[in-house]
Amino acid sequence: MPHQLYAVIMAGGSGTRFWPASRRSRPKQFLAVAGEQSLIAATRDRLAPLIEDDHILVVAAREHADLVREALPGLPPENLLCEPVGRNTLPCVALANAEVRRRDPDAVQVILPADHVIAPAESFRESLAAGAELATCSGALITFGIRPSHPATGYGYIELGPLTGELEHVSAHEVAQFVEKPDQLRAEEFLRSGRFLWNSGIFVWTTAVITAALEASAPATWKALRDARPQDLEQIYPGLQAVSVDVGVMEQASDLRVIPIDYTWSDVGSWGALADLVPSDGDDNRLLGGGSMEAIDAQGNLIYGEAGMLTALIGVRDLVVVRAGDALLVCARNRSEEVRGLVERLNKSAPEHL
User: Fold this and answer.
1) Do residues 253 and 213 make contact, with C-beta atoms less than 8 angstroms apart?
2) What's the confidence (pLDDT) of residue 97?
3) What does the pLDDT look like over 285-339, one tens digit per residue?
4) pTM, rounded to two decimals
5) CA 129, CA 135: separation in Å to the nearest integer?
6) Smallest Cα–Cα separation from 202: which of 27, 7, 34?
7) 148 dihedral zone (left: phi>0; alpha: psi -120 to 50; beta)
8) What local confidence, expressed as pLDDT, does residue 153 receive?
């Protein structure tokens, strides 16, 4: 395993589907929605001892800098890179790559979102170590795909190409194609075929290889950020193209490998997604957030209440009930993905609640 291993935690997401607990002032990655730790703190802890704090960079919105410092008190101050405005993940990756390149042009980088739930941590670190070794010896861009457990329509997919080999009991395949979020029928076809994986949004590459990929696929963004100083970003960022690294780099690259993984993974994309991650009572009700619950003839509900808050249920089924701050959300559990659309409406009608 390469010793010059860096991690880049992308913490710029807004977490709109977790409203009203997730707000502009404290988005999802800073909440303890799937355990006692915030999601970003759990992400950092999963990396140790493979990668320690001095080799972990966090890219976050400038207005959330204090939240990062609160969640990660061991993070060196110079390892926090602040974006003045959000421009999706490609500028985030380019900004981090410029910093890693200044420190160690031979480094290997692990790129991962701040808001995933992954277990066990040991298996995760083993796959990262194998990915780092593969990136070093192959010169390819490496991503990780999750073996699907159901025909999910909320994830992008990766189609497996030919097997390229095994390393440390981890197999790697060529990437045949990336596929955007499918409809239900197509997702069922993907599951039956056994050739498709969920796109995890986790990557490993050498600094030299991602630099070359940025130069080839996103030259304007890379040119703007490769020598930028922190004080320059205020002027640079608004003019950058807002695009994901998947679309801007990965889908245009020729040498891609995917490592299938089958341990527990969730991008915690909606309240409903927490049902598989939070313990239930005898009636399949789940409680999180630190509050308490009393339920009579109530089944299959997911409740979020802050500490000191009691939620009482009578005769209801399969609801999401979230009370946080000045807002209350009640929705059918199977429609929790629609919270994002609700937030878009609130942005026009009641932005003070966001």
Assistant:
1) yes
2) 98
3) 999 988 999 999 999 999 999 889 999 999 999 999 999 999 999 999 999 989 9
4) 0.94
5) 10
6) 7
7) beta
8) 87
Assess whether the previous peptide bond of 49 is cis (omega < 30° from 0): yes
C-beta neighbour count of 151 within 10 angstroms = 17
Q: Is the dihedral of CA 264, 144, 137, 132 positive or negative?
A: negative
> Token pair 């095994």 is at which residue?
166
On whether the CB atoms of residues 90 and 248 are closer than 8 A, the answer is yes
Full DSSP string of 153-204: SSS-EEEEEEEEEEETTEEEEEEEEEEPPP-HHHHHHHHHHS-EEEEEEEEE
Over range 263-292, report the average pLDDT.
90
Instruction: Using pLDDT thresholds of 50, 70 and 90, give the confidence band for residue 166.
Output: confident
H/E element holding 306? none
Rounded Cα gap, residues 35 and 56, in angstroms = 22
Tell the residue number behind the tokens 């808050």, with chain if given. Answer: 309
- Which residue in this structure is represented by tokens 């159901």? 150
How large is the angle between the packed helices 39-47 and 121-138, nearest 10 degrees? 60
Kindly report, residue by residue over 97-141, the tens digit of the pLDDT: 999 999 999 999 999 999 999 999 999 999 999 999 999 999 999
Cα separation, 131 vs 293, whole angstroms: 43
Considering the chain, tell me which residue range(s) the CATH 3.90.550.10 domain(s) occupy: 5-269
Indicate the length of the chain as a whole number.
354
Instruction: Say which CATH topology domain 5-269 has.
Output: Spore Coat Polysaccharide Biosynthesis Protein SpsA; Chain A (3.90.550)
Q: Record the tokens describing residue 72, joined without a space.
A: 């990660």
Task: Please state, in angstroms and rounded to a whole number, the distance separating the CA atoms of residues 179 and 199.
Answer: 9
1 token code pair: 């395993």
In the block, tokens 């499918």 appear at: 182
Contact 198, 148 (CB under 8 A): yes
